[in-house]
Amino acid sequence: MAKKNVPYDQPYYDPEIECMPRPQLEQLQLERLKDELRFAYENCPYYKRVWDEAGISPEIETLADLQKFPFINKATERETQGVGSFFGELAGVPEDDIVYMATSSGSTGVPTMSPFTQGDFDEFMHAEARLFWQAGMRPHDRYLHGMNFALYVGGPCVIGAQELGALGIWVGAVPSDRLLWAMKQYKPTFMWSSPSYAWTLGQKAIEKGYDPKVDFASLKKIIISGEPGGSIETTRKAIEELWDVSVYDFFGLSDIYGACAGMCEHKDGLHMIEDQILVETVDPDTGEVLEPGQVGELVYTTLTKRARPMIRFRTGDIGTFDPTPCECGRTMGRIHILGRKDEMFIVSAVNVFPSDIEYIVRKDEGLSGEYRIRVYDENFTTRYEVSVERVFGSEEPYDQVARRVEEALKTHTGVRPAKVLVYDADGLGVASEHKASRFIDERKK
Fold first, then answer.
1. pLDDT at 445
2. How far apart are the first and last CA of the chain?
3. Predicted TM-score of the model (pTM)
4. Fewer CB near the terminus (10 Å): N or C of the chain?
């Protein structure tokens, strides 16, 4: 893709789109949605069959008419994958038109493939360039891409940085020693990683005798994604303090794009690329569409994708959507993700997310920042326990740490944990080079 020449001092990569008045943006969305629905009906066997069975016409008049269409989810992807063709019944083009595919991790089931036509891929990279520019990246920056390239949809995002003219340093998923060497050698100004690994890498650097703030002073900004930590203020600030950088949270999902939304300098939610993805918030139980600002499950519909149109895809993410203009001047609405629907647990009628626990753990200077949550049934009720680590070299009594954390969790979440277990630094073994697994669900399904 050719480099787009944008003045360095211009705050927007594509101001016509990013700052489009809301009525004009919604008209653009409606035009694209009409076209996407027709395309999906005429070219995707699944949509034609299901909509015909339900007596649903692909023709609409308003954005609200989208509500008449049924939802799809991960199960839909798995059930249709490989049916009738390699990419299955959700595919809208023949395989010869597919130029790139990624897959999900498969952590919750069979990995699902995510195909792209050349046009889809170009739109994808243009979206990445916009989000990078929004985070402050410019052509003079050196961008170290620390994300996995192996079938992971976040791998090619580095090309978006190159579209805007930045130097792409394709490091990928490598051992910490190798990544620290690359950072010392090439002195990047930007880096992309997961929240877990950004924190772990800083700790590894300290163990190696480095001062992250001094020895990696070229690094000015870190983009983090793949886990909810980037939107948890205490986690974000802990990483910022560790590296002396500004941290920006990005959000993506393999089902659509590597990154679909990202923070601007005001860090009040993540701007969605609404010219390409329509956002709904629905009641997780009933599917009823909620008003903007209400907490519910986020649902996405692609507006331009051809390889695999996604019509009303239920993400399993619980959060809010704010379509009001941001202080930065962008009119693209912002998502705020609270956590995963399948990781939320209810204790004494209170909804608790892992992000609530992370907020407390990362805020406590006597803790390493690592944690594990165990949720289980006991006497016909749900209970949870939290394991934490003391900071390296701490001699604070274990029971004193446990009491402090227990009280903080009770105050913040409204429900006291059944137990707080305290370990020495590195005792939990949850630190990860990429995504960390910190949630153990032992409830009876």
1. 61
2. 48
3. 0.84
4. C
Distances from the Cα of 240 to the Cα of 212, 244, 293, 358, 388, angstroms: 11, 5, 28, 16, 21
Strand ranges, E, within 348-441: 350-352, 367-378, 381-390, 419-423, 439-441
Instruction: Show the tokens assigned to 89.
Output: 């019944």
Q: Which residue has the tokens 């809208």?
A: 92
341-369 pLDDT tens trace: 877 787 877 778 887 888 889 889 899 88
Q: Using alpha carbons, list the distances in angstroms from residue 430 to 207, 253, 345, 435.
A: 17, 23, 21, 10
Written as one string, the DSSP assignment of 85-102 is SSS-TT--S-GGGEEEEE
User: Tokens 């994808």 map to which residue?
Assistant: 124
Q: What torsion, rounded to 10 degrees, do the Cα atoms 264, 266, 270, 276 define?
A: -50
Nearest Cα to Cα of residue 255 among 69, 94, 102, 83:
102
Residues in a beta bridge with 143: 168, 190
Q: Is the dihedral of CA 366, 371, 375, 376 positive or negative?
A: negative
- Where does residue 107 rank: exposed (0-12), middle (13-18), buried (19+ CB within 10 A)? exposed
What is residue 381's three-state secondary structure?
A: strand
* Distance, CA of 129 to chain centre: 17
pLDDT digits 0-9 by tens, 186-215: 999 999 998 878 988 998 899 899 999 999
| Strands in 108-166 per DSSP E | 113-117, 142-145
Token pair 């792409």 is found at 168
Q: What share of the chain is helix, strand, coil (3-state, %, to 5)?
A: 35, 25, 40
Provide the 3-class DSSP secondary structure of residue 270: strand
- In terms of Cβ atoms closer than 10 Å to its own Cβ (0-12, 13-18, 19+), residue 323 is middle
**In the chain, what percentage of residues exceed pLDDT 90?**
68
Domains of the chain: 1-340 (3.40.50.12780), 345-441 (3.30.300.30)
